[in-house]
């Protein structure tokens, strides 16, 4: 008789070892399931659960879940683009449901949200939630823009939209300079200042300085970099890139008001691509683009990202494991009435 999968809570180090076994045998894993992302969330004061699943002593799944609050005194755990699973089965899903039950009881969580694309495809009984219910501040984008960067420099250059090539050359003619920093050693005030400027210009909110400090301190030196562009000795643009399993993610970025006509973010990303190639990384994940589920106004950002070439990857809505049905019903009603 076949044994059921066994799921255990683990330390960050144990999780890192288990995840390495899985990520080397499958598609690229998002940095949102990387061990340093868990460290980032812990530094931000959130509750994080690291867990692994085994079957006949073989690791078949690993994930990290972050606890979030929602309106009405509701809280839930969310596995962003995770957990990482060899192959979903009803037995694995049942084992994960049982594993989180005492955690939900202990922490007061109403539900646990899994956001791995394979779950609803491989286990038909696991139904993705409706669009309106799916949308929370923590929900990761339902569509991302990716670019393979293993081609030659010349091939990648010619794949850029002509406007992107023009803006890179424009920055070069302005004698733009780009420096790469280990995340923990990056000049935080410069990075945060450029993000503040961008947020004010484009009317969106950002986190506190201490939050970004925690982010930069959490990312290992070999798992990303901060790129800062200067023109005439003044900060012009900056971006944080984080990498896991050879996929580099464009995480945060900002630019000055003083060099808008030069558009230095193009220069930053082009040179970040070249740096990533030197480090042996294979894919640049630009992150979210316009999509109906989240309803974000990302038309300008989407156009900017697509000018580098690449392709779209979409994610089905997540699956919720419900532990407090009454509270979940209230949460659903609140979402419908908004």
Structural description of this entry:
The chain is α+β, with helices and mostly antiparallel strands. It has helices spanning 12-23, 35-43, 90-107, 117-122, 131-134, 153-159, 162-173, 188-202, 209-218, 264-278, 299-306, 325-337; strands spanning 6-9, 48-55, 58-70, 74-79, 84-85, 111-114, 143-148, 177-181, 224-231, 234-244, 247-255, 283-288, 311-314, 319-322. The protein has two domains: 6-140 and 316-337, Aminopeptidase (3-Layer(aba) Sandwich); 143-314, Aminopeptidase. The protein has twelve helices and 14 strands. The longest helix is centred in the first third of the chain and has 18 residues, at 90-107. The termini are far apart.
Topology (SSEs and partners):
Blueprint (H helix, E strand, L loop, with lengths): L5 E4 L2 H12 L11 H9 L4 E8 L2 E13 L3 E6 L4 E2 L4 H18 L3 E4 L2 H6 L8 H4 L8 E6 L4 H7 L2 H12 L3 E5 L6 H15 L6 H10 L5 E8 L2 E11 L2 E9 L8 H15 L4 E6 L10 H8 L4 E4 L4 E4 L2 H13 L1
Helix pairs in contact: 2-9, 7-10
| Overall body shape | globular
Using DSSP, what is the number of strands? 14
Alpha-carbon distance between the termini?
Answer: 49 Å
CATH class of the largest domain: Alpha Beta
Approximately how much beta-strand content do the residues carry?
25-35%
- Unreliable parts: none
